[in-house]
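Look over this entry.
=====
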Amino acid sequence: MGLISKFAEIKQQQTRDEPYVGVNIGTDVSNLLSPADLVAFLQVQKISHVRLYDADGDIIKALAKTKIRVIISVPNNQLLAIGSSNATAAAWIDRHVAAHHPDTLIAAVAVGDEVLTAVPSSAPILMTAIESLYAALVAANLHTEIKISTPQSASVVLDQFPPSQAFFNQSLTPFLLPLLQFLSRTQSPIMMNLYPYYVFMQNKGVVPLENSLFKPLTPSKEMVDPNTLLHYTNVLDAMIDAVYFSMNNLNITDVVVLVTETGWPSKGDSKESYATIDNADTYNSNLIKHVFDKSGTPLHPEITSNVYIYELFNEDLRAPPVSEANWGLFNGNSTPVYLLHVSGSGAFLANDTTNKTYCVAVDGVDTKTLQTALDWACGPGRANCSEIQPGEVCYQPKNVKNHASYAFDSYYQKEGKSAGSCDFKGVAMITTTDPSHGSCIFPGR
């Protein structure tokens, strides 16, 4: 029971700080909002925690005086310079942290991203870089307010299920043990990028989809750890506990898991048939509820890990597969990709503060494809298409796109704006802009 008691102090800390859900902001987006617009958007969506993949000075400045807490990052390509020179590390902290904090609330510095598995050649300098940056934080007297850690890929843990048998890849122990000792000494979290989506995709037939999406399970579907007899109702909890057991194997018992990335893609290629709007919506909506339930994990019900959803925007400039460009909660133009079902979680990520959303035809789709979707909506879909008949108020302008938008919106509103009801095989999109015109009032209004 030593493991549990060690966490008593952490539990007190956690009671003071309510668990939160943050979002990652990747910037491979064609028309990224300006820093000022981005921050205004975060405030409208009630997003209070963000993680950047660099230390973009304009975004950090725009976050000043907002109460939004930010994790800034040292990109992998800067590790060598920082790990080779204390002066470079001090200059980095001076420029990216000390110059902004506490006007901008910098919560942590993430040093690299998945370094041990993505750029193993940098593994030997990772701890040197971390220690140099920490020394610079101490010199600036910011080390008690700002944590330093480094995000790891889930693949550093082997045999994730059952969690009690999990252990760190032994070839990485020479790098992980000093890291964990540092995190323990500085009371910093271990940052983990944990994706049930990939666990599911790599173990289809073994891991049920319901467990991956936090869906309610019958007791027979729960995964039971034969050694601890703990029942796991979802994959993410099992992945988090696998990290706790792996740390315990190295005698580290007081470091908390922070999930720096998790999410589910809403679109994929032919090999990625589970990357759908419905699954992405279900995963992220249930994830948010799970964190706000504060139920912890089976091993540590007293500790709820904070999580950062990957990611805020679809990064349309990402290279294939298709899913890479479709992890976002929002499109680059800030319209929602889907509407989360998070009632009871406050105003957080309510997607649209007015709650008025419409479903319209996407630009640039050929008329024939749109006509097929329009015919389905007005026929089998049973949308109310009376207003787009000849002589009615929404007949003009007489074109397929206008008529399709009206029919799509009618169907979407009739279906209670449920996940997947504004897709029509990819030719429709959700918007917060009212498409009504003249005396033609769309159903969503």
Observations:
- The longest strand covers residues 105-111.
- Residues 201 and 303 are 28 Å apart (CA to CA).
- Residues 123-139 form the longest helix (17 residues).
- The two ends are 58 Å apart (CA to CA).
